[in-house]
Write a structure and sequence with these properties.
The chain is an alpha+beta fold and about 90 residues long. It contains 4 helices and 3 strands; from the N terminus they run αβααββα. A 3-stranded antiparallel β-sheet has the order 1-3-2. Helix 1 packs across helix 4.
Length: about 90
């Protein structure tokens, strides 16, 4: 996979946090300054490769302004190795 500026931004963001940190799409968009049109295809590619996993967290009971479950991404061990090798 060629290392584009967006790929480097996303890899760097995912690798800077603790191994068990879960990233929301909103958090990734803010940190990388990427638009959804570029962010989501990269996330899908990396999900397919096993570099990240995703999960949904039910809405917190104390946050009525968040009616839908939050979608989170977590870097896998394989992903940490591959992304570190690429950067």
């Amino acid at each position: 996979m060629p290392m584009t500026r967006d790929t480097r931004r996303l890899a760097s963001t995912l690798l800077t946090e603790a191994e068990d940190h879960r990233f929301s799409a909103s958090e990734l968009r803010q940190a990388t300054r990427m638009h959804n049109a570029r962010l989501y295809p990269l996330l899908e590619q990396w999900l397919d490769r096993g570099w990240i996993t995703d999960d949904y967290d039910p809405s917190p009971h104390d946050a009525p302004e968040q009616p839908q479950p939050l979608h989170y991404y977590l870097v896998t061990e394989l992903g940490r190795r591959e992304l570190a090798r690429m950067s």
